[in-house]
Prior knowledge:
By secondary structure, the protein is α/β, with parallel strands linked by helices. The chain has one domain (12-282): Thiamin diphosphate (ThDP)-binding fold, Pyr/PP domains (Rossmann fold). The protein is built from nine helices and seven strands, in the order H-H-E-H-H-E-H-E-E-E-H-H-E-H-E-H. The protein has helices at residues 12-37, 42-57, 84-94, 134-148, 166-177, 198-201, 207-213, 226-233, 272-282; strands at residues 75-78, 154-159, 183-189, 192-193, 196-197, 217-222, 244-249. Helix 1 runs antiparallel to helix 2, helix 1 crosses helix 3 and helix 1 (12-37) runs antiparallel to helix 9 (272-282). The radius of gyration is 18 Å and the shape is globular. Mean pLDDT is 95; it is low at 1-5.
Amino acid sequence: MTETGSQSPNGFRERVVWLSAKANWIRLSAMTMTHHARLGHTGGDLSAADILATLYLGEVLRVDPSNPGWPQRDRFVMSKGHCSGAFYSTLAQRGFFPLAQLRTFMDPLSMLNGHPDRNKLPGVEANTGPLGHGLPIAVGMALAARIRHETWRVFVLVGDGELQEGSNWEAAMAAQQYGLDNLTVIVDRNGIQQGDFTENTIRMEPLADRWTSFGFAVKEIDGHDHTALLEAFQSVPVMKGKPTCFIARTIKGKGVSFAEKKPAWHHGVPTREQLEIAGRELDVEVEW
């Protein structure tokens, strides 16, 4: 699978199968980039791939790769910016820049920094990486749309460990205060952060109740089920007058047996042999 910017099939079932294959391509592409750079965040790249593929390739986000600054575009903020391998692979597949650019991941002077930079790469809306920044930025974007009477929407993907940053909850209070139903928060709930499982670090459950108490309309979904993801994202706002939060239950390292549910793969770097194993398990090939 080497094409970029291809259109998804018209039939819903065919689209789901196509998205699954695209997500696996994103997974192996991100792992190949990490192998090249000797740096990266494999586990989170793999857990987020289905969410990113659905948003960008499932025609959820209204964006135009030929005109990245289109004023009426939907905005997406990759708050968990350390998972840039999956994000860049998705943007390239959507046609924001050539696939061959992925070969330069973290090289000197490359557009593809370890964390996304909106000043360097088309399709990136906000510089992220320091955790807890993306949601406040997204709230500001959604509020700007409200003030300007614009119809574009804002989606933001946050990590679950990232929610231990208090700035997220300050932003959530503001989103509720202004009734930002043009804002959708997606939590990549893979249960692992740097060094350990989230519940061993700071207990987060009951996470849905926490978001509900902050005034969000909340739904829990399977973050690897493309049917569930499409139906959820196409349903926003879940409740008029309230921001939406989808808690996407995912698996850290999804799809690669030696990485699944292992904290060490938060930023593990695959060997060439491990890349070959991953390619067989994901049933895809990556050629840039």
